[in-house]
Write a structure and sequence with these properties.
The protein is an alpha+beta fold. It contains nine helices and 15 strands. It has a four-stranded mixed beta sheet. A three-stranded mixed beta sheet has the order 1-9-8. Strands 2-7 form a two-stranded antiparallel sheet. Strand 12 and strand 13 form a beta hairpin. Helix 2 runs antiparallel to helix 3. It is rod-shaped, with a radius of gyration of 40 Å. The protein binds zinc ion (2 copies).
Length: 378
């Protein structure tokens, strides 16, 4: 069946202005609109023809292509092809290249977004405690994401009336060109969002997108020994793709909260332990907490000073992908007592009376040197 000339379809002259086209289109569209002609197949066909004709002629560039090449401009995935080969090449796009290529340079380079689009990746942050980083954790994340629409099983089409067709606005190119002054600019086709295809009978729930926005609950395994700033990739758990396209990935950025008593450097755990000065002087066995949640006994020898370190082998952080553990380093801080009771004070005064010249070699040495210094000068 030969196609009617677009100008004839709209009943306008070939030199009709944009306004004339619009007026003619409106009048005919009102007349043949399916709502006004329920069940009338002829009116429906006519209505489609009118729309197809107007869709081409209202667009300056499509109209120019049509004037030059006739219906051939839109064959092979053109406006009237309705369900032509998926992503049909050639047609008006090729003609656009030919006509405007010189202005555009290499406008088509790079993905032009046609065809079903893979889902976007999702990035999300997860803050965990240092003890969870030590032991590893299965964290539950709530991720806002696009998932396949249940109503249409992700097809984007209303049930039973499936199928997509080449986008009539861009002829499947995914991009449209518009004249701005002397320049022709190219932008993503707003009708099909660059897909090159439009859904013939869009799903009422997702409006043809095939995906809907949801908050999803996801379990992510964070391995023991994870470092602050680690990025965990969970393949296929990103946003759902377009119909038939793969989902994106989920990237979880792990941040580790500072711990009140432990610091970590790779597999080593540091802990500063304050001791009573008597414990440091007399020696003691002290129980210190470890990162695994247990307590461990540390022998503090008599005469321990502030800053002295003790290494506890195998009591440090878990090593990623291994059963090994690093070491724990404890650093002692000797605390001078404050707010003494009367009894403590008496005992310390007695202790002090006994201490002149005994038991504090650094102290003695310092003041001996100071004395020499002054006497030497005097
Ligand atoms: Zn849907
Ligand atoms: Zn389009």
């Amino acid at each position: 069946m030969a196609k009617q000339d677009y100008y004839a379809t709209l009943g306008v002259a070939r030199e009709a202005s944009g306004d004339d086209l619009k007026k003619a289109y409106r009048k005919l569209a009102m007349q043949y609109h399916p709502d006004r002609n329920p069940g009338d197949k002829q009116a429906e066909a006519k209505f489609k023809e009118i729309n197809e004709a107007y869709d081409v002629l209202k667009d300056e560039q499509k109209r120019a292509a049509y004037d030059r090449y006739g219906h051939a401009a839109f064959e092979n995935g053109g406006a009237g092809a309705g369900g032509g080969r998926f992503g049909g090449g050639g047609g008006v796009r090729a003609i656009f290249e030919q006509m405007f290529g010189d202005f555009m340079g290499n406008g088509r380079r790079g993905g032009n977004g046609r065809g079903p689009r893979a889902g976007n990746d999702i990035r999300t942050a997860l803050e965990i405690s240092l003890t969870d980083a030590f032991a590893g954790i299965k964290a539950t994340l709530r991720v806002p994401t696009r998932v396949a629409c249940e109503a249409c099983s992700g097809s984007g089409s209303e049930k039973g009336q499936g199928g997509s067709e080449t986008c009539a606005s861009c002829q499947g190119a995914g991009k449209v060109r518009a004249q701005q002054g002397f320049f022709i600019i190219e932008r993503t086709c707003p009708t099909c969002n660059g897909q090159g295809r439009t859904i013939r009978n869009p799903c009422r729930i997702c409006h043809g997108a095939g995906t809907v926005q949801r908050e999803r609950s996801l379990q992510v395994s964070v391995p023991a020994g994870v470092e602050d700033g680690t990025r965990i990739r969970v393949a296929g758990e990103g946003e759902a793709g377009g119909p038939g396209a793969p989902a994106g990935d989920l990237y979880v950025h792990v941040a580790i909260k500072p711990h009140p008593i432990f610091q970590r450097d790779a597999a080593t755990v540091f802990c500063r332990v304050p001791l009573r000065f008597t414990q440091a002087a007399l020696g003691d066995d002290v129980e210190v907490p470890t990162i695994d949640g247990s307590m461990t006994r540390v022998k503090i020898p008599a005469g321990t000073q502030t800053g002295d370190q003790f290494r506890l082998r195998g009591k440090g952080f878990s090593v990623l992908r291994s059963a090994q553990r690093g070491d724990m380093l404890i650093q002692v801080q000797v605390e001078t007592p404050q707010n003494l009771t009367r009894k403590q004070r008496e005992l310390l005064e007695e202790f002090e009376a006994e201490s002149k010249g005994k038991g504090s070699p650094e102290h003695e040495g310092f003041f001996a040197k100071a004395k020499e210094f002054f006497q030497g000068r005097g």
